[in-house]
Amino acid sequence: MRKTTCTAAVAATAASLVLVPAAAASAAGGGGGTATVSVLHAVPGLTVDVYANGQELIPDFTPGTLTDPQQLPAGSYDLAVFQAGQPSTGTPAISANDVEVPAGANVTVVAHLDAQGQPKLTPFVNDTSAVPAGDARVTVRHVAAAPAVDVRAGGQPLVQDLSNPDEASAEVPAGTVSADVVATGTTNVVAGPTDLSLPAGTSTVVYAWGSPTAGGVQLALQRIEDLGGAPGGVAAGTGGFLDAGGVPTWVLATSAGALGAAVVAGVGAAAVRSRRTATATATTGTGDRAA
């Protein structure tokens, strides 16, 4: 292991970095620039409708779904998440108002449970800095309704005492590692073990989500590519989902049937596009590099 860092997650107010259409972006009055944003629905058993600035953006958003990354205008947004089919005039299950979306950021917003099982929104800023030659970056994010965990690689601790909603990162030699997740200070396996492929020049983000009392703790994978070159290079990510054949089964967030399609509004238009339904894993480019 080359380097390990542990970071507490940013307060949930930035969670309204959700996909917004042109009308909502205009209402936000952004000062220019864009951000790269993905959204992970990690609240088990709750299908939701997502609204931003009063407009429905993602109907029937199912647990375990990770959106493709989108380029969004910088600005200020209000977000409301309602149980699917409920009127938007009621009280939202989760909300955040007057939230600034910073230009140039690469963010994954996660709707999840806190350690006590209450729904919340947490934005994580993805590290898109260059990875040393021959290395890969691994980030683990604890967003499950569960106590602290340890993450092991080859039976040795990689991350220890990670609590919800914190994250920890390490730069390791590229290759394949046998990884598992255990309750902190024990050998009680929460997930794994599995062989986890870590290609050179990439960042692999593993989300532990769900609840031991509601379907168990599950793990979802997000990969950010093209981090091995100098800043200013071309983003290599396709924005699509990884081939399930190349992903260990423990990082699949849900079955294909649970994913479903969701509406995603593009920047500068209110057109919709289908979310792919293979797995809850996505490959993204760096987002803040020149196209």
Overview features:
291 residues; mainly beta; six-stranded mixed sheet; four-stranded mixed sheet; 2 helices; 20 strands
Q: Pairing-aware structural class of the strands and helices?
A: mainly beta
H/E element order: EHEEEEEEEEEEEEEEEEHEEE
Percent helix:
under 10%
Overall mean pLDDT stands at: 72
Strand content: over 45%
The geometry reads as globular
Task: From the alpha carbons, calculate the radius of gyration and give it in angstroms.
Answer: 18 Å
Protein described:
- The chain has one domain (3-284).
- It is 4% helix and 46% strand.
- The longest helix is centred in the first third of the chain and has 7 residues, at 22-28.
- It is mainly β.
- The chain has a 6-stranded mixed β-sheet, with no helix packed on it.
